[in-house]
Amino acid sequence: MAHKKVNLASKLCGQCKRPFSWRKKWQRDWSNVKYCSEKCKRLAKARSKTGA
């Protein structure tokens, strides 16, 4: 049975604070996913490195 997109889990991105939905590639690691994209992940890493 196919899933409808409205039934997917969602979270807020730790960097941009926008909501993002579950993706199949995150199936095994959903509890550890913090960012909506690689760009946000890189920005957050750079931000923590500068101490801002």
Summarize the structure.
The protein is an alpha+beta fold and 52 residues long.
Give an overview in words.
By secondary structure, the protein is α+β, with helices and mostly antiparallel strands. 25% of the residues lie in helices and 12% in strands. The protein is built from one helix and two strands, in the order ββα. It has a two-stranded antiparallel sheet. Strand 1 and strand 2 form a beta hairpin. It is elongated and about 45 Å long. It starts with 9 loop residues before the first strand and ends with a helix. 2% of the residues are buried.
Report strand order across the widest sheet. 1-2
> How many alpha or pi helices?
1
Distance between the termini: 46 Å
Low-confidence stretches: none
Q: How many DSSP E strands?
A: 2
Sheet having the most strands? 2 strands, antiparallel
Query: What is the structural class?
Result: alpha+beta
Overall helicity: 25-40%
Helix-strand string:
EEH
Radius of gyration: 13 Å
Average pLDDT works out at: 90
β-strand amount:
5-15%
Shape: elongated
For this entry, give a set of tags.
single chain, 52 residues, alpha+beta, two-stranded antiparallel sheet, 1 helix, 12% strand
